[in-house]
Amino acid sequence: MRATVYSGRNSVEVQSVPDPKILNDRDAIVRVTSTAICGSDLHLYDGYIPTVKRGDVLGHEFMGEVVEVGKGVHNLAVGDRVVVPFPIACGACSACERELFSLCENSNPNAGIAEKFMGHSPAGLFGYSHMLGGFAGGQAEYARVPFADVGPLKIDDDLTDDQVLFLSDILPTGYMGAEMCDIQPGQLVAVWGAGPVGLFAIMSAFLLGASKVIAVDRVPYRLELAEKVGATPVNFAETSVLEELQDMTAGRGPDHCIDAAGMEARNASAPLDAYDRVKQAMRLETERPHALREAAMSCRNGGTLSIIGVYGGLMDKFPIGAVMNRSLTIRTGQCHVQRYMRPLLDRIRRGDIDPTIVISHHLRLDQAPHGYEIFKRKQDGCTKVVMNP
């Protein structure tokens, strides 16, 4: 089959790789009909996630048709149309029983590697390094889905792939980012990053009762899209975000701040930007935490920092003193996608949220290298790339 593989820093190729096979009774094989390039894929592309190897099949946002099931899979049948969540979860361990599916204790066969980096291992993930399981991803014609009796969500044919594909990751992630804020009616939320996850966090914050949501970004077309879904745009390249947010909130700051930017955030005018870029380039620091620092300094006393942007390791000069002395609450995590898929599917059906608004490009799978480049460099108005194998 054909698949998108990692071929070195800032490089992917579409190559022929072996077809996936059933390896466990709880496996299924899915013929991929739609797959997407995620912002967190760019961290792999840019070489900032350890234990990624040349030839690894990338991609963790995908859906398709079941073409084979293992003997232990009784909830799916050949021909079923499914969306596959990006965390792989067994459904039976202590974490899964608490619906903390991205912390599954049984799905990462390389848990020992993750423990060396993180202390304890999270769940295995599709297409996201050997530290997180070494599972082949879904930017391919076919994918093996472990624990298929737990993860995939069956979809009726009345909804298009574009409407439901993002249930695999970014829609639940944005929603969880807003949910972790415990938003009360009338509160104000600020979101750093107006990419696809940030846009879904904005829409979710409104659904959960926010009276105003502010979108912080520097790319005009992304800010225009944020404004289209109801947010008030702030361009950090043109103004001081901290001062702007104080002006908007009578000096108090937003009630909740959501970091949907993650480890490659930057602001060329910020004093620490050059410091972070040099240290990250020399692999002395894995993160550029500009957005998170700014969110911490901007949030009102007693407010919430919700972190859904991906971080991989270590950062410098995080204002922990501000967090501690001002009673800020930090909530974070890879999304527990399985928890949110069904409720969000219902919201899509009711018309509460339209996931298709983030899609800017449809490409063929063999155009993946082009898709990665325009997504990374924010060219051609690229917000989200969907590929159809």
Write the layout of secondary structure elements.
Layout: E1 2-6, E2 12-16, E3 28-37, H1 39-45, E4 61-69, E5 81-84, E6 87-88, H2 94-97, H3 111-118, E7 124-125, E8 142-145, E9 153-154, H4 161-164, H5 170-179, E10 188-192, H6 196-207, E11 212-217, H7 220-228, E12 232-235, H8 241-248, E13 256-259, H9 273-281, H10 290-298, E14 304-307, H11 320-325, E15 329-332, H12 337-350, E16 361-364, H13 368-376, E17 385-388
Helix pairs in contact: 5-6, 5-12
Structural account:
Residues 196-264 form the Alcohol dehydrogenase-like C-terminal domain. With 389 residues, the protein is α/β, with parallel strands linked by helices. The chain has two domains: 2-169 and 336-387, Quinone Oxidoreductase, Chain A, domain 1; 171-332, Rossmann fold (3-Layer(aba) Sandwich). The protein is 28% helix and 20% strand. The chain has 13 helices and 17 strands. The chain has helices at 39-45, 94-97, 111-118, 161-164, 170-179, 196-207, 220-228, 241-248, 273-281, 290-298, 320-325, 337-350, 368-376; strands at residues 2-6, 12-16, 28-37, 61-69, 81-84, 87-88, 124-125, 142-145, 153-154, 188-192, 212-217, 232-235, 256-259, 304-307, 329-332, 361-364, 385-388. Strands 3, 4, 5, 8, 9, 16 and 17 form a seven-stranded mixed β-sheet that branches. A six-stranded parallel β-sheet has the order 12-11-10-13-14-15, with helices on both faces. The chain has a two-stranded antiparallel sheet with strand order 1-2. Helix 5 (170-179) crosses helix 6 (196-207) and helix 5 crosses helix 12 (337-350). The model has no long low-confidence stretch (mean pLDDT 96).
